[in-house]
Every structure is written in structure tokens, then in C-alpha cells.
Amino acid sequence: MRLAPLVLLVACSKPPPPKAPVTEQAADKVADIAGRWVTSDDMDWNYTMTIEASGVIDVWIDRGKMGRCEQKGTIKQGGASRVFRVVYTRGECNPEAVNLPIDMTIGSFTGASLTVVVANQSRTYSRSDQ
Known about the structure:
The chain is mostly beta strands and 130 residues long. It has helices at 3-12, 30-33; strands at 35-40, 46-51, 56-62, 68-77, 83-91, 101-109, 113-118, 121-128. It has a single domain (21-128), classed as Lipocalin (Beta Barrel). It contains 2 helices and 8 strands; from the N terminus they run ααββββββββ.
């Protein structure tokens, strides 16, 4: 008999309130997207991208047994909204990309997550405080 009130209490509890929708933020200046961003892919490669408001971009890729590599260079506003021009001066991961201008489009930016599109390939990063 003591279980009946407990079960009744659980059955009458309200569901948690829905989470607030995530809103897009401005991503038109390098300072808007500056920060340290991390992600991984289905091959267990880990990506760390650091963007400084001063216009420096530094991408480290940990490729497991293949080791780590770095792509480092500059990032500046491109010719359209949410488009940035990246020029790598160091290209351990992709030497062919060194000194070639690359357009990086921001597919989504919420402050906590950043989706970048380069050459029709999309990657979503999460902000990291470390």
C-alpha cells in the first residue's frame, strides 16, 4: 500500500520544459568566430582549429597512427557575408594548399558551435575553453 502514493507522484510529475532553440549569431568578422574549436570524424581523427581575432588561423589534425600535422596561416573577411579567405603559410597536412587562397564559408555559427564549409566539405566544430 505504501507504493501506491509514490507511483502516483511519479505519474503526475510534469515533463521537463523544452530547451530554448539555438540561435544563429553574426559571423561576418574574424573576431566573431575567434576562439578554439574542436571536432573529430568517423576515422577518429581529431581537429583543433584556433582562430585569433588578429587574423591568424592554426589547424592541428591528430591522425592517430599517422601522427599530427599542422596547417597555419592567415584568415580575413572574404568578398561576401559569412565568407572568409584563408591562406596557409604552413601546410604539413596538405602542402598543395600552401599560399593558395581558400574560401571558407560559415554554414552555421551559434557561439557554441561553428560549421565551416571548404570545397563543398562541411565540418562542425564545438567551442573549447582549453
